Amino acid sequence: MKLEKHIPVLLKESIKSLNIKNNGFYIDGTFGQGNHSKLILSKLGNYGKLYAIDCDYKSIKIASSIKNNKIKIIHGSFSNIEKYMKKHNMLGKINGILLDLGISNLQLNNYKRGFSFMKDELLDMRMDNTNGIPLYKILNKININELSLILKKYGEEKFCYRIAKKIIIYRKKKKIRTTFDLLKIISKAIPIKNKFKHYATKSFQALRIFINNELNNIKKLLKSSLSVLSKNGRLSIISFNSLEDRIIKKFMKKYSSKINIPQGLPISEKKIKEINFTKLKILKKIIPSHNEIINNIKSRSAILRIAEKIN
């Protein structure tokens, strides 16, 4: 089967943001089909190294086809970069970390895991389907309050309780197994359809984020980046929804801002310096150009945020 080509978003901008050194060390935490990795490799000298990470074993298979001694392939979650780099004696030595948090065309259209509501497939939704429990099994057991909370928290779905209630009612008669089962339930639960956005978008996003623990993985990665990056190392992350971007923005702001301490407080200069020890410098926020959005509509919600470790 011929795999559908994935069009990477902000490809040139994200690679440029890494400020790649000829013999530097880099991490592509979301290898996917390897578009970013291949471009990074093309800029590395003989002593440079790229650590390509992906939790999807099919992406690892693609990575394994690259014949280049400058790439090290790791099957696992990007949230574990601190553990991986410690194993390779690379803590504090990485010159750049890149993440593209978007779901690829490969996963949407080729893997038959239920990521897309446009095809009738088994409702799995795991990025790494060698671990964990598929979504359809969870939906057939989860209680209404927990399900409603997931839809609200991760999808910002205002009809969360109505959808959760319809799922509970449906599964009493018939087990949920496919994307179209879920699509039919959501359609009946939502009284008013948004003509600019598919009615199932928020629910599918919420359930995917939940089952893959996506937001917690991002938080863990961000915290680990401070010990993984070298001084002047770059952190470049492309996000595709407000939940992801909010976490990234908050993290970069937290570690790049000094606290305004009122005069007269009984606190030493040494303590003030410790409190105001900033670790990051925010460099830029980039969004796709008008032309990129026209050529790739999926890029419209993308935001690339770039920061540099300064301490």
UniProtKB/TrEMBL annotation:
Which Gene Ontology cellular-component terms appear in the entry?
A: cytoplasm
Q: Where does S-adenosyl-L-methionine bind?
A: D54, F78, D100, Q107
Q: Which GO terms describe its biological process?
A: rRNA base methylation
Q: Which SUPFAM superfamilies does the record match to this protein?
A: Putative methyltransferase TM0872, insert domain, S-adenosyl-L-methionine-dependent methyltransferases
Q: Which UniProt keywords apply?
A: Cytoplasm, Methyltransferase, rRNA processing, S-adenosyl-L-methionine, Transferase
Please give one Pfam family short name. Methyltransf_5
Asked whether the keyword Cell division is assigned, the reply is no
Q: Which GO terms describe its molecular function?
A: rRNA (cytosine-N4-)-methyltransferase activity
Please give the superkingdom of this protein's source. Bacteria
Q: Which reaction does it catalyse?
A: cytidine(1402) in 16S rRNA + S-adenosyl-L-methionine = N(4)-methylcytidine(1402) in 16S rRNA + S-adenosyl-L-homocysteine + H(+)
Where does the UniProt annotation locate this protein? Answer: Cytoplasm
EC number(s)?
A: 2.1.1.199
Q: Which InterPro entries match?
A: RsmH, SAM-dep_MeTrfase_MraW_recog, SAM-dependent_MTases_sf
What does the UniProt function comment say about this protein?
Specifically methylates the N4 position of cytidine in position 1402 (C1402) of 16S rRNA.
User: What protein family is recorded?
Assistant: Belongs to the methyltransferase superfamily. RsmH family.
Stored HAMAP family: 16SrRNA_methyltr_H (MF_01007)
Protein name as catalogued = Ribosomal RNA small subunit methyltransferase H
Q: Which organism is it from?
A: Candidatus Annandia adelgestsuga
